[in-house]
Amino acid sequence: MFPRVQVPYWRLSGFYLFYFSTLGALLPYWSPYLQSLGFGAVEIGELVAILVATKIVAPNVWGWLADHRGRRMAIIRLACLLACIAFAAVLLASTFIWLALVMVVFGFFWNAALPQFEATTLTHLGDSVHAYTQIRVWGSVGFIVSVWMLGWIFDRYGVHFLPQIIVALMGMIWLTSLLVPEEAAGHLPLSQEPLRKVLARPKVLALLIVCFLMQASHGPYYAFYSIYLADHGYSPTLIGELWALGVLAEVGVFLAMHRLLRKWGLRTLLLASLGLATLRWLLIGFYVDSLPVLTVAQLLHAATFGVYHAMAIQLIHRYFVGRHQGRGQALYSSTSFGAGLAVGSLLSGFTWASFGPERTYAFAALLSLVGLGVAWRWVRTEG
After folding, report:
1. Residue 289: strand, helix, or coil
2. What H or E segment, with its residue span, contains residue 75?
3. How many CA atoms lie within 13 A of 294 on its CB side?
4. Residue 2 domain-assigned?
5. Greatest mean pLDDT range, 29-38, 137-146, 173-182, 288-297
6. Each residue of 90-140: pLDDT tens digit?
7. Rounded Cα distance, 298 and 244, in Å
8. For residues 225 and 336, what is the distance between their CA atoms, to the nearest angstrom?
C-alpha cells in the first residue's frame, strides 16, 4: 500500500496531467510538424534547440522571483497563461525567423511553470517526499493518452492541426493551476547557507553535470526519433504507440519507486539509469528496423527518464534546502532540460545531417556513459 499523504492530491495531479499531455503533443509531433512545413534536419534541430535553450535562463529568473516574492503559485498561473497566448502566435506565420521568435517568447514562459510547481509539490509533501511519484505519475498518464490519441488522429488527418491542439491543452494547464492554493507552495524562511556555498560542493556540481549529460544524450531522441522511425517505414500510429509504451513503462516504475528506493537507494538507482541510457541509445541507433528491439529500447524509458528523474529531483531537494528549493529546482531544469537538451538537440541536427542517425545515437550513448563516470566518482547521498 502507498503511504497516505495529506495533500490536495487531485489538484496537484491535475496540473501534471495536462502539462504532460501537452508535452505528449509537443515532443513527438513538433518535429514532424516542422518537417511538414518544409524545414530540413538542421533547421528542425535549431528550432527544437531554441525552445529548450530558454530553459537555461527562464527557470532561474522565475525561480528567483518565486523565492523572493513568496507568490509561487501566482507566478505559475501567470506563466501558464502567457505561454498559451505566445504559442498561439505559431498560427500567424510559418517562416523560420517567425517560429524562432515565437519559440523564444513561448519558451520563456512555458519553462517557468514546471520547476516551481515541482518545488510546490515537494515542499507540500514535507517528510513524505518519497510519495512524489504517486502525484507525478498522472503526468505520465497524460503523456500516454495524448501521444497515443494524437498518433491515431495524425495518421488519418495529418499533423497540420497540431498547433491548435497544443493551444487547447495549454489552456487546460492554466485552468488547473487556478485550483492549486498559494498555501500549497509552503514558502520557507531563507536558508542560513548562501547559495554559492551549496553550488561549490563537489557532489552538487557533479549532479548538475550528470543531469546536463543525461539530457544532452536525449537530444536525438526528442528531436528526431519520430522522423527516424517514419523514414524506416513506421506509421504515425505505431510511432505514437512506441512513444506511449515508453511512458507506460515510466508509469510502472513510478508506482514501484517507493519499493525500489528502499531496496537500492538513490545513488545506485541513478547509476543504473545512466548505464541503461547508454544501452538504449545504441539499440535505437543500430537496430531501428527491428520492432522487438525498439520495444525493449522504449521499455528502458522507465530507467532513462522515470528512475533518473525521480532520483535527480529528490537529490536536488536534499541538496537545496529552505528557500533555496525553488532555485534548486530551477537549476536542475535549466541545466538538464535546458542547457543539456538544447545542446543535445542542436548537435544532433548537425550530426544527423553530416554523419547519419547511427553515429548520432552512438554519440548520445557516449554522453550518458560519461555521465555515469561522473556520477560514480562524485555524486553522494551523504556528507
Report:
1. coil
2. helix 72-87
3. 21
4. no
5. 288-297
6. 999 999 999 999 999 999 999 888 888 988 888 777 767 667 888 888 998
7. 9
8. 19
Q: How far apart are CA 309 and CA 329, in angstroms?
A: 12
Contact 135, 9 (CB under 8 A): yes
The reported pLDDT for the residue numbered 163 is 95
Helix (H) or strand (E) holding 261: helix 257-264
Nearest C-alpha neighbor of 304 from the set 381, 168, 213, 227 = 213
For residue range 350-378, what is the model confidence (pLDDT) as tens digits? 899 899 999 999 999 999 999 999 999 99
Rounded-to-10 torsion of CA 258, 260, 265, 269: -120
Range of the domain at 359: 9-378
Q: Are 269 and 307 in contact (CB under 8 A)?
A: yes
For residue 166, count CB atoms less than 10 angstroms from its CB and return exposed for 0-12, middle for 13-18, buried for 19 or more.
buried
The residue type at 170: M
Q: What is the CATH number of the domain that holds 195?
A: 1.20.1250.20
pLDDT at 206: 96
- What's the CA gap between 325 and 193, in Å, rounded? 12
Whether 121 maps to a domain, the answer reads yes
Number of domain units in the chain? 1
Residue 324 has a pLDDT of 73
Name the DSSP letter for residue 356. Answer: -
Instruction: Give 42-80 pLDDT, tens digit per residue.
Output: 899 889 888 877 878 888 888 778 777 767 888 999 999
Q: Which residues of 255-272 are buried (b: 16+ CB within 10 A; e: fewer)?
A: eebbebbeeeebbebbbb
Residue 271 forms part of a structural domain = yes
Quote the percentage of the chain above a pLDDT of 70.
93
HSE value, Cβ hemisphere, 13 Å, CA-based, for 214: 34
- Rounded Cα–Cα distance for residues 275 and 300 (Å): 11
- Residue 206 maps to a domain: yes
Measure the CA–CA gap between 265 and 241, rounded to whole angstroms. 32
What DSSP line would sit under 80-116, residue for residue? HHHHHHHHGGGGG---HHHHHHHHHHHHHHHHHHHHH
